[in-house]
Amino acid sequence: MTREWLFRAASHYLERYASTEANLRRVLQRKVMRRAQACGEEPSAFEALVDETVTKFVELKLLDDRSYAEAKLASLRRRGTSLRQSAAKLAIKGVDRETVASVMAGDETDEADAARRLAQRRRLGPHRLRERAERRDRDVAALMRAGFSYSHAAAAIDGEADSHD
Which residues does 83 contact at the CB level (< 8 Å), separation at least 6? Predict the structure, then answer.
């Protein structure tokens, strides 16, 4: 395992996926662990090399947690993900709390719109073809499990389907 091998592995990963510093570090650590076990070496001996590689990508501006968080949040909100669940998904990817909070503050998506989008995507409430009344409580519960408040969930489920869908 060389510095060049690790750099190529990281660049190959970043060509395919957007990532955060913490996520790239986890990916590289897994690669190092698998390679070290195959060669009978100690993975912890390469920890500094992993840190150096991640730092290099940050310096080259190919890895930026803030821009990743902004793009991911926009994508999640377009899909109908609640603010609460969006924050959790960003945290899982390794975005720090301050960055998550500042990106969330800049989000202009209405929570009620996001709830309606999720209901449409999952065919709940007004988008259900049959048994709408019988399944109302289950549909509201599904949106609440997705992180929406009762008022937003109920409004999305009890509302009418948009005519321009």
Answer: 104, 107, 111, 114, 147
Q: Which residue range forms the structural domain that includes residue 96?
A: 65-105
CA–CA separation, 94 and 107 (whole Å): 19
Q: Tell me how far apart the alpha carbons of residues 112 and 134 are, in angstroms, rounded to a whole number.
A: 23
Number of domains the chain contains: 3
Q: Are residues 120 and 146 in the same domain?
A: yes
Count of Cβ atoms closer than 10 Å to residue 48 Cβ? 9
Whether this prediction's pTM lies above 0.90 is answered by no
Q: Are residues 13 and 46 in the same domain?
A: yes
The widest CA-to-CA distance across the chain, in whole angstroms, is 63
Residue 163 lies in a domain: no
Q: Which two tokens stand for residue 56?
A: 């290099």
CA distance 32 to 13: 14
Question: pLDDT tens-digit profile of 43-54?
Answer: 787 888 999 999
Q: Kindly tell me if the per-residue pLDDT of 162 is higher than 80.
A: no
pLDDT at 40: 81
Question: Do the domain assignments include residue 7?
Answer: yes
User: What is the C-alpha to C-alpha distance for residues 20 and 65, in angstroms, rounded to an integer?
Assistant: 5
- CA angle, 50 as apex, 49 and 54 as ends, to 5°? 115
